[in-house]
Protein backbone atom coordinates (compact mmCIF):
# COMPACT_ATOMS: atom_id res chain seq x y z
CA UNK A 1 0.00 0.00 0.00
CA UNK A 2 2.55 2.57 -1.10
CA UNK A 3 0.46 4.70 -3.40
CA UNK A 4 -0.97 7.72 -1.64
CA UNK A 5 -4.02 9.20 -3.22
CA UNK A 6 -3.31 12.77 -4.06
CA UNK A 7 -6.41 14.72 -4.95
CA UNK A 8 -6.48 18.28 -6.13
CA UNK A 9 -9.66 20.31 -6.46
CA UNK A 10 -9.90 23.90 -7.59
CA UNK A 11 -12.63 26.32 -6.56
CA UNK A 12 -12.66 29.27 -8.89
CA UNK A 13 -14.34 32.35 -7.46
CA UNK A 14 -13.02 34.88 -9.98
CA UNK A 15 -16.35 36.46 -10.96
CA UNK A 16 -17.67 37.30 -7.47
CA UNK A 17 -14.23 38.36 -6.24
CA UNK A 18 -13.72 40.74 -9.16
CA UNK A 19 -17.11 42.26 -8.45
CA UNK A 20 -16.21 42.65 -4.80
CA UNK A 21 -19.16 40.68 -3.43
CA UNK A 22 -17.04 37.89 -2.03
CA UNK A 23 -13.71 37.67 -0.29
CA UNK A 24 -11.56 34.72 -1.24
CA UNK A 25 -9.66 34.84 2.06
CA UNK A 26 -12.92 34.47 4.00
CA UNK A 27 -13.88 31.54 1.83
CA UNK A 28 -10.53 29.86 2.49
CA UNK A 29 -10.89 30.46 6.24
CA UNK A 30 -14.42 29.04 6.13
CA UNK A 31 -13.19 25.90 4.39
CA UNK A 32 -10.32 25.49 6.85
CA UNK A 33 -12.78 25.62 9.72
CA UNK A 34 -15.47 23.45 8.16
CA UNK A 35 -13.71 20.67 6.26
CA UNK A 36 -14.02 17.43 8.17
CA UNK A 37 -11.40 14.72 8.07
CA UNK A 38 -12.50 11.45 9.67
CA UNK A 39 -15.64 13.15 10.92
CA UNK A 40 -13.88 15.96 12.76
CA UNK A 41 -13.46 19.60 11.85
CA UNK A 42 -10.09 21.21 12.46
CA UNK A 43 -8.48 17.87 11.74
CA UNK A 44 -6.79 18.71 8.45
CA UNK A 45 -3.25 18.05 9.63
CA UNK A 46 -0.93 17.54 6.70
CA UNK A 47 -3.50 15.44 4.88
CA UNK A 48 -5.51 18.31 3.49
CA UNK A 49 -3.95 21.60 2.48
CA UNK A 50 -5.53 24.74 1.11
CA UNK A 51 -3.82 27.06 -1.29
CA UNK A 52 -5.11 30.49 -2.23
CA UNK A 53 -4.08 31.84 -5.62
CA UNK A 54 -5.59 35.24 -6.39
CA UNK A 55 -9.24 34.30 -6.69
CA UNK A 56 -8.93 30.54 -6.62
CA UNK A 57 -8.78 28.16 -3.71
CA UNK A 58 -6.99 24.89 -4.36
CA UNK A 59 -7.67 21.97 -2.05
CA UNK A 60 -5.04 19.24 -1.98
CA UNK A 61 -5.84 16.04 -0.16
CA UNK A 62 -3.85 12.92 0.64
CA UNK A 63 -6.93 11.22 2.05
CA UNK A 64 -10.12 10.21 0.24
CA UNK A 65 -12.01 13.43 -0.33
CA UNK A 66 -15.13 13.92 -2.37
CA UNK A 67 -15.57 16.75 -4.79
CA UNK A 68 -19.27 16.76 -3.98
CA UNK A 69 -18.40 17.59 -0.36
CA UNK A 70 -16.60 20.72 -1.54
CA UNK A 71 -19.67 21.74 -3.49
CA UNK A 72 -21.76 21.25 -0.37
CA UNK A 73 -19.39 23.40 1.70
CA UNK A 74 -19.25 26.07 -0.99
CA UNK A 75 -23.04 26.28 -1.04
CA UNK A 76 -23.02 26.51 2.74
CA UNK A 77 -20.59 29.43 2.53
CA UNK A 78 -22.72 31.19 -0.09
CA UNK A 79 -25.82 30.72 2.04
CA UNK A 80 -24.05 32.09 5.11
CA UNK A 81 -23.06 35.19 3.15
CA UNK A 82 -26.45 35.56 1.48
CA UNK A 83 -24.97 34.98 -1.96
CA UNK A 84 -26.92 31.84 -2.68
CA UNK A 85 -29.48 33.77 -4.73
CA UNK A 86 -26.88 35.13 -7.11
CA UNK A 87 -24.21 32.50 -7.42
CA UNK A 88 -24.23 28.87 -8.36
CA UNK A 89 -21.52 26.27 -8.11
CA UNK A 90 -20.77 24.79 -11.51
CA UNK A 91 -18.33 22.01 -12.30
CA UNK A 92 -16.20 23.33 -15.13
CA UNK A 93 -13.93 20.30 -15.24
CA UNK A 94 -13.45 16.94 -13.57
CA UNK A 95 -11.62 18.43 -10.63
CA UNK A 96 -12.76 21.99 -10.36
CA UNK A 97 -15.78 24.08 -9.53
CA UNK A 98 -16.52 27.61 -10.57
CA UNK A 99 -18.81 30.15 -8.98
CA UNK A 100 -21.02 31.62 -11.67
CA UNK A 101 -23.89 34.01 -11.70
CA UNK A 102 -27.32 32.76 -12.54
CA UNK A 103 -28.15 33.71 -16.11
CA UNK A 104 -31.67 35.00 -15.85
CA UNK A 105 -33.91 34.42 -18.87
CA UNK A 106 -30.97 33.32 -20.95
CA UNK A 107 -31.18 30.15 -22.96
CA UNK A 108 -27.79 30.56 -24.64
CA UNK A 109 -25.92 30.02 -21.40
CA UNK A 110 -23.22 27.84 -22.91
CA UNK A 111 -22.47 30.25 -25.74
CA UNK A 112 -22.24 33.04 -23.20
CA UNK A 113 -19.52 31.20 -21.31
CA UNK A 114 -17.47 30.36 -24.37
CA UNK A 115 -16.96 34.01 -25.30
CA UNK A 116 -14.82 34.67 -22.25
Describe this structure in words.
It is a single chain. The protein is of the alpha+beta class. It has a single domain (7-103), classed as Gyrase A, domain 2. Helix content is 31%, strand content 30%. The protein contains 4 helices and 7 strands; from the N terminus they run E-H-H-E-E-E-E-H-E-E-H. Strands 4-5-1-7-6 form a 5-stranded mixed sheet. A hairpin with a 2-residue loop joins strand 2 (36-37) and strand 3. The model has no long low-confidence stretch (mean pLDDT 86).
The CATH topology name reads Gyrase A, domain 2
Q: Quickly name the level 1 CATH class.
A: Alpha Beta
Strand content: 25-35%
The spatial strand order of the largest sheet comes to: 4-5-1-7-6
Net shape: globular
Sketch the topology as an H/E string, one letter per element: EHHEEEEHEEH
What is the number of independent domains?
A: 1
Radius of gyration: 15 Å
Keywords: Ribonucleoprotein, Ribosomal protein
GO molecular function: RNA binding; structural constituent of ribosome
GO biological process, one term: cytoplasmic translation
Family: Belongs to the eukaryotic ribosomal protein eL22 family.
